[in-house]
Design a protein that fits this description.
about 160 residues, 3-stranded antiparallel beta sheet, 2 domains, alpha+beta, single chain, JmjC_dom
């Protein structure tokens, strides 16, 4: 999961799952040594039954929240975005997405004075070997490992 300034996402076709955590419940960056991708939201989503609720959800109703690393309460809000719909996500909401079907979407950041400077720096930052994009493009070993999954691209 990660967070940033406010964003919008218009889904033209397909389905997209959003896992959300309001700023007041998010532990992102607050727990020592927590990696942004270290999250159990996907397992929680998979564990939801026909009622759409997990045992942890039921316990949260009586205990005030499920426990995460650091002992903070955190309950995920899940949203399935359907085709021809728009999602607006306010600033600082922790989130992760998963495409449930092939789809096409258009989206963007809504900048405020606090975030515009950072995004301008990222936009104009030089891209060298340190960038993931170039590392993936230039690293032959990576390509050899991934190529079998995409035979239509050829060797």
């Amino acid at each position: 999961m990660h967070h940033h300034s406010a964003v919008w996402n218009a889904l033209i076709y397909g389905r997209k799952l959003w896992a959300l955590v309001p700023p007041a419940r998010a532990t992102f960056g607050k727990v020592a040594r927590q990696h942004p991708l270290d999250s159990d939201w996907y397992k929680v989503w998979l564990g939801r039954g026909a009622t759409g609720r997990t045992k942890a959800d039921a316990n949260a109703d009586t205990k005030g929240g499920t426990k995460r690393a650091g002992g903070r309460a955190q309950r995920y809000i899940f949203c399935e975005q359907e085709a021809e719909s728009l999602v607006y996500l306010p600033s600082s909401w922790a989130h992760a997405t998963l495409n449930l079907e092939e789809g096409v979407a258009v989206g963007g950041f809504l900048h405020d004075e606090g975030s515009l400077g950072l995004h301008m720096q990222l936009l104009h930052a030089p891209r060298g070997m340190g960038s993931l994009q170039n590392a993936a493009t230039l690293h032959r070993g990576w390509y050899q490992n991934v190529a079998p999954a995409f035979p239509e691209l050829g060797a």
